[in-house]
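Budget justification aside, the reviewers requested a transparent look at the raw inputs and outputs of the sequence design task funded under Objective 1. We therefore reproduce one unedited record. The lines immediately below are the structure tokens for a 283-residue chain.
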């Protein structure tokens, strides 16, 4: 109990501004990182340095790089789980620290790599993506269909009412790939302005991954999107790609532009493409 009370006494480091700005009714310019730097408390080194990046409304942006490059940290700053120690992040030209944190975060639907698996029904697992919504079956089914989850859900004994995990007497275990589809449905349920996907298809089989990105813009209702993926075949459809290395953006451009530069992106892509196509076929 002492640990619980100690936890409840923790004050949030990101506080509500005295006079918060109203969120724009319609986002015009989108989000911009301007010379952003970040260092975790107690860490001797910066995790992010001199980051310039933008996400416009309706634009699909991809973020690629090896593990430890700072991609997930950038997402945490974008969602204002932390604030930059240098530079600023703006929404339509206004520093996001001038908005109410709760209202600002409502702009985003997010699926992190370590998404949660709740011991609850399928319907509840998806509804947790937007607990402020009424959780109507039609909207939950729509999110599941967009995530490619409706097929396996309909085959479960109780459909969307099936309890998941063996914690329940009639609980059902599903595969890690099926859990990831539920996490995607959870992100798709919220009617947000931007959707953020951190390795969204890491546990999906190649067929499911292909179906997801074949009509990706329709699945996300043409919202702005920021996507992290190590599978560079999935980021080719992005409008713009940023390449990160050691906490910095070292390359940016479209897929074709980055291939022509023959830099880090070219090297990573060619290694992944080597066993599938020859050099002329994938350029």
């Amino acid at each position: 109990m002492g640990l619980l009370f100690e936890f409840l006494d923790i004050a949030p480091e990101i506080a509500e501004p005295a006079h918060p700005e109203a969120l724009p009714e319609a986002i015009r310019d989108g989000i911009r990182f301007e010379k952003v730097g970040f260092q975790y408390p107690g860490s001797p080194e910066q995790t992010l340095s001199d980051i310039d990046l933008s996400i416009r409304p309706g634009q699909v942006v991809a973020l690629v790089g090896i593990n430890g490059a700072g991609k997930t940290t950038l997402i945490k700053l974008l969602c204002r789980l932390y604030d930059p120690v240098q530079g600023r992040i703006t929404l339509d030209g206004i520093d996001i620290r001038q908005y109410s944190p709760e209202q600002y975060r409502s702009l985003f639907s997010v699926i992190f790599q370590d998404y949660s698996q709740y011991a609850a029904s399928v319907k509840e697992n998806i509804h947790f993506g937007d607990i402020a919504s009424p959780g109507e079956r039609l909207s939950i089914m729509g999110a599941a269909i967009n995530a490619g989850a409706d097929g396996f859900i309909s085959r479960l004994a109780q459909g969307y009412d099936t309890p998941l995990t063996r914690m329940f007497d009639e609980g059902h275990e599903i595969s890690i790939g099926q859990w990831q589809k539920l996490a995607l449905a959870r992100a798709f349920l919220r009617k947000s302005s931007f959707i953020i996907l951190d390795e969204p298809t890491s546990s999906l089989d190649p067929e499911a991954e292909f179906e997801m990105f074949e009509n990706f813009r329709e699945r996300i209702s043409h919202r702005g999107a920021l996507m992290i993926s190590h599978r560079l075949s999935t980021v080719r459809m992005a409008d713009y790609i940023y390449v990160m290395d050691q906490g910095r953006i070292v390359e940016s451009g479209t897929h074709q532009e980055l291939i022509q530069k023959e830099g880090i992106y070219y090297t990573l892509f060619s290694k992944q493409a080597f066993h599938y196509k020859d050099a002329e076929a994938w350029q």
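The longest strand covers residues 31-38. The chain has two domains: 26-107+193-283, 115-191. Computational costs for records of this kind are itemized in the attached budget.
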